[in-house]
Amino acid sequence: MDMQTSFLDRLFETGLLIDTGVDGLYGRSGQFEDVIAAFERMIDATGGGDGAEAMRFPPGMNRAFFETSGYMKSFPQLAGTVHSFCGNELDHMSLLQCMEVGDDWTKGQEATEIVLTPAACYPLYPTIAKRGRLPKGGGLFDLQSYCFRHEPSKDPARQQLFRMREYVCMGTEADVTDFRQTWMDRGVEMMKSVGLEVAIDVANDPFFGRAGKMLANNQRDQNLKFELLIPITSVSKPTACMSFNYHQDAFGAKWGIHLDDGSVAHTACVGFGLERIALALFHTHGLDVKEWPAKVRKALWG
């Protein structure tokens, strides 16, 4: 039995995660949720004084915005769409007959105007673009959302539906790169305060196909993405629990987001994988929070 499956089985046995029969789709116990809530309070305490505007979007987003984002060009393998029955009574009867005999009843489903949100920040950019120019000093936003990535796995740290907490900065190149560095430093300190061993390394997104390899290489060469890595199911291949991304002016140009002087805004974001951080804590300190080191419990619950 590999380390990933062993840890997942233990999480199921203790009830921290609840098996739904689909890899990467899990229920969570109250204790698991309490750890996430405690860590989010730490995030609030760390970044709360920065004056970010809080927004909370649902786990689905406008399909037209999704198409404009270009996500399907880079990550078609991860995307999830929402389809629904839109037929008449005859179509309904046919659907029920398919279900009764075990045939594929989804063929008649039609795409709706909603797709599953791939990252917490994706609905933000068109929202801000509609406001017009950013105020002097740019913008800072605090986001949290369930996100979807179609990558079923036995690795409990690679879930298909998971929560992402983000801070997004919009401003000049200097503004957003300073923001990113600040959060890289903060992220290391936050993880150390809860007893987690971390490393930060340059990274790339999982771009699709042959052209994607070039995009990934460019992203790494320009140091556009860093990840904070913590061992969860592998010591040799630790898991990315935070990411620090500099988008240059790509989103600003795509969505028409401008600074007060009319120049195109640069953007950067820091993302916390909330389930992954909780899993890192349970893997490191044990599955019973009452047995966690006093220092860690104090950092999380006071």
Concise summary:
With 302 residues, the chain is of the alpha+beta class.
Structure characterization notes:
- The protein has one domain (3-80, 118-301): Bira Bifunctional Protein, Domain 2 (BirA Bifunctional Protein, domain 2).
- 40% of the residues lie in helices and 25% in strands.
- It has eleven helices and twelve strands.
- The chain has helices spanning 3-14, 30-47, 63-69, 71-74, 89-101, 124-129, 173-193, 209-221, 250-255, 274-285, 294-301, and strands at residues 17-22, 25-28, 53-56, 60-62, 81-84, 110-116, 139-148, 161-171, 199-202, 225-230, 239-248, 266-273.
- It has a seven-stranded mixed beta sheet. A three-stranded antiparallel beta sheet has the order 4-6-5. The chain has a two-stranded antiparallel ribbon with strand order 1-2.
- The longest helix has 21 residues, at 173-193.
